[in-house]
Design brief:
This protein has one domain: Alpha-Beta Barrel (TIM Barrel), CATH 3.20.20. 44% of the residues lie in helices and 13% in strands. It contains 13 helices and 10 strands. A hairpin with a 2-residue loop joins strand 2 and strand 3. Helix 4 crosses helix 5, helix 5 runs parallel beside helix 6 and helix 11 packs across helix 13. The longest helix has 22 residues. It is globular and about 65 Å long.
Length: 358
């Protein structure tokens, strides 16, 4: 993959604490101007991982403050037919994407539209722009039917859910592509940390791969670059066998588990893909307070040596790497979140100076 020059540059995961939208973008542009992203605020009314992307899914209903899918009865059947008609019409060009159910609106994703306006007026163009969307596995386990069962385990609803995510990812690429820059879309997939557990029992590795790749194929069809972020640990062979161009993992806490996938890591780098290292802690405020850019950069170089020992040229590892926080910063206080952003930038700068990537 050679859509942009990664070279240990910094970028962020989508979320920040609730704040003014302009203030949030100011932080993004200050610390990651080369690969900025639109900001999600999970504490805002429509900023949650499910509700932000659920509109348009057939059978969607509200019980109190909880979204669910009513997947029983003739009303659902009719909604499903209408959904697939819209899906096919967008794909064959008979329905304008912007007139379809597969868009984001300013009510659902204010940060996306703020981002479009900011990019348009940047004095210096970034190397790439980044969007994100809840991945199909996390979406499908987080959203339940009327009986409390995850929609991921209803094949009919699962298919509609995956297509909803795929189309909204495509729509993001199409909107962001107007700037003539590479567009990167990350799937946020924290639920994959539970793969193999009781929560995802009955879901095979092949099932997961098919769901992920349907979204990745949609992004690729629009000319976008695909990425995936997984919190904690997972079956990394499954992730690296997918069509993700960029894989983002928590290098701060889980490198020792990631490095066990030696053959997959080797093949990943040889296929010219990018590893995004989540070097900056976000889970525990104590870790954020204790670490500094120098200590985190030292950890990175130790880890790069272990990857290079698999038979990969160190120069290739460095050129095919991005530096990120270990996860989003949406659950942190503003002070801690800003320190995470600053550390991400500063760690990248130390690494790039050390190995002469300027």
């Amino acid at each position: 993959m050679a859509y942009f020059d990664a070279a240990c540059r910094p970028t962020l995961i989508g979320s920040l604490p609730s704040m003014d939208g302009d203030e949030a973008l100011d932080l993004v542009m200050t610390y990651t101007p080369h690969m900025p992203h639109w900001v999600q605020m999970p504490g805002s009314a429509n900023g949650g991982m499910i509700q932000q992307f659920a509109p348009g899914l057939p059978g969607l209903a509200l019980r109190g403050n909880t979204l669910f899918v009513d997947n029983e009865g003739p009303a659902f059947d009719a909604a499903l037919v209408k959904f697939y008609e819209a899906y096919m019409a967008v794909n064959d060009g008979s329905l304008d994407f912007d007139e379809s159910p597969f868009i984001l609106t300013p009510v659902q994703a204010e940060g996306f539209f703020d981002f479009l306006g900011r990019i348009e007026h940047m004095e210096e163009a970034p190397l790439a722009v980044k969007g994100q969307i809840t991945g199909p596995i996390t979406f499908g386990t987080g959203l339940k039917d009327k009986n409390g069962r995850a929609i991921l385990f209803d094949e009919q609803v699962r298919d509609a859910a995956v297509k909803t995510i795929a189309m909204k990812a495509r729509w993001q690429v199409r909107q962001l592509a107007i700037f003539g820059l590479p567009v990167v879309i990350f799937l946020d997939e924290p639920a994959l940390a539970g793969f193999g557990s009781s929560e995802l029992i009955g879901l095979s590795k092949e099932d997961v791969g098919a769901c992920l790749d349907e979204v990745f194929e949609a992004v690729h069809a629009e000319g976008g670059v695909t990425g995936i972020h997984v919190c904690a640990n997972t079956d990394w062979s499954m992730v690296m066998e997918s069509q993700a161009d960029i894989v983002n993992f928590d290098a701060y806490s889980y490198f020792d588990r990631f490095i066990l996938y030696e053959n997959h890591i080797t093949e990943f780098f040889r296929s010219d893909r990018v590893l995004a290292w989540g070097l900056v802690p976000t889970l525990n405020p104590e870790d954020i307070a204790r670490e500094d850019a120098e200590s985190l950069a030292a950890h990175f170089f130790d880890q790069v040596d272990r990857v290079a020992a698999l038979g990969i040229e160190t120069a290739a590892v460095l050129s095919q790497s991005l530096i990120t926080p270990s996860c989003g910063a949406g659950s942190l206080t503003l002070d801690f979140a800003e320190k995470v952003l600053k550390l991400t930038r500063d760690v990248s700068e130390i690494i790039r100076k050390e190995v002469d990537l300027w």
